[in-house]
Amino acid sequence: MKINPSPYIYLLDLGNPEARQWALQEVCRNIDESGIDIYRQDCNFAGRERTIWDDNDEPDRKGVLEIKHINGLYLFWDELRRRYPDILIENCAAGGRRMDYQMMSRSHSYCRDDAQMFKDCDELTQNITLNSTAYIPITGGETFTVPVFDDYAFLSRLAAGTVFSPTDFQGMLLKRTPSKEELDWFRRMFSLAKRIQRYFLGDFYALTDNPFDSSELYCAYQLHLPEGSEGFFAVFRRKDCPLTTFTPALHAINSNATYKVEEFNGNTMQMKGSQLASWSLYFDKPRTCRLFFYTQED
C-alpha cells in the first residue's frame, strides 16, 4: 500500500497473509543470524496512515483495510513472541502513537514522544507524565535538548527511564570537554533520575487536572510506594503562571505519622503527616519545579 502522491512512501499490508509471512521470515532470519534479543518496530508515519486507508479502501468498506492491517500486526508480533519467548518488542510509532491496550500488552514503548528531542517541550513532557503514567508507567524521557543547569527542563522529562546525553543542547553530542560545574550538574541529575525509577512501580496520583498546553497553570503529580510508606512528588509552576503558592493535597499520607521530607536539592526536614498532606509550597519565580521525597519514620 502506498501514500499518494509520493511514489516513495509505502506501508506493508500486514492484513495480507502472504505479505505478513514474508515479513515474518525476513525478521526471523535477521534475528537468527545476528543474535538479536530486542526487536524495535517503528511506524513513523505521523498520522499519515489515514491517507493510506482512504486511498486503498474498497468502495463501501471504509475501515476494513485498517482493521485487517492492525489484526495482522498483532498476529505478526504474537508469532515473534511464540518463536522467541524472551524477545523484547519495542514499539515506536512517530512519537507516542500506538500506545493502546493491545499494543502495550505485546510490547514495550520506551520513547513516549519524539517531541522530547526538541527544544521548548517542557510542558508537553509534563503532560505526558501526568496523563500516561497511571496506564503506562514504564516509559522513558529524553534529555537531548536540555540546557546545562536547567533543572526545570530536566525534571520535566523525568520518567521511569531517562535517556541522559550530555549535549550541545541542539540534539547533538557534546564535542568539547565539560567544565567541572557542568560535570557536577550532570552527575546530580543522573543520580536523581536513577533514584526515582523504583517509584514508578508504585501508585500514581495526578495532583492537578490536565493542564493541556496552558503555560499559566501548575502541573503536579505524586508516586507512592505503599509497602514502604514513601514516595515523591513534583510540582511545576509554568512559565506564565501568576500564582506563587500551590497546595498539592498529597494522597496516602498518614496524618498521625512523622515523615522525613527531602527536597531534591538536598534540604531535609521532618514534619507531621497532617502538615505534609496539606503543605502549601511557595515558588519565588515562574518556570520553577520543586520535587520532594518523603519517607514515613514511625
Question: In summary, what is this structure?
Answer:
With 298 residues, the protein is of the alpha+beta class.
Query: Mean pLDDT, rounded to whole units?
Result: 88
Any idea of the CATH topology of the largest domain? Immunoglobulin-like
User: How many helix segments?
Assistant: 8
Approximately how much beta-strand content do the residues carry? Answer: 15-25%
Order of helices and strands: HEHHEHHEHEHEEEEEEHEE
* Number of separate domains: 3
In terms of per-residue confidence, which ranges show pLDDT below 50 for 5 or more consecutive residues?
none
Please name the fourth-level CATH homologous superfamily of the largest domain: Golgi alpha-mannosidase II
Task: Look at the helices and sheets and give the structural class.
Answer: alpha+beta
Q: At the first level of CATH, what is the class of the largest domain?
A: Mainly Beta
Which assembly state applies to the chains in this document?
single chain
Just name the CATH architecture of the largest domain.
Answer: Sandwich
Keywords:
298 residues; alpha+beta; Immunoglobulin-like; six-stranded antiparallel beta sheet; two-stranded parallel sheet; 8 helices; elongated
